[in-house]
Write a structure and sequence with these properties.
Blueprint: E1 10-16, H1 17-26, H2 33-38, E2 41-42, H3 46-56, E3 63-69, H4 70-73, E4 77-82, E5 87-92, E6 103-110, E7 113-119
Antiparallel strand pairs: 1-3, 2-5, 3-6, 4-5, 6-7
Length: about 120
Amino acid sequence: MPDEHTHPEFVYRLATAEEWAAAVETGAVPTRDIDVRDGYFHLSTRAQALETARLYFVDAEGLLALEIPLAEIVAMTKFELAPKRGEIFPHLYGTLAAAQVSRAIRLVRTADGFVFGEAL
């Protein structure tokens, strides 16, 4: 079990509405080319998610933050340095089932990025 003082209760996978619909239909959150290349699912903490959205999902329509209780995936998750950002990020080495997602939260576009909106 993660130490609540060093690891968050939840981690987040950014996904388009289309990716989330596919996950609900198939039962598995789809990987992207970067996940396949790096060998893990790229995740973020809540504090990192909005900057990740701003940097890498500027053109995404219907962007969501899939909230995942870390306890669900802790055995397959490592917190590792992402050199480009100079921060420690959660990386999931395994599959991510749609059932492991506790909720999908809309990310609302603003003039300079995104903010968390309502849960679906």
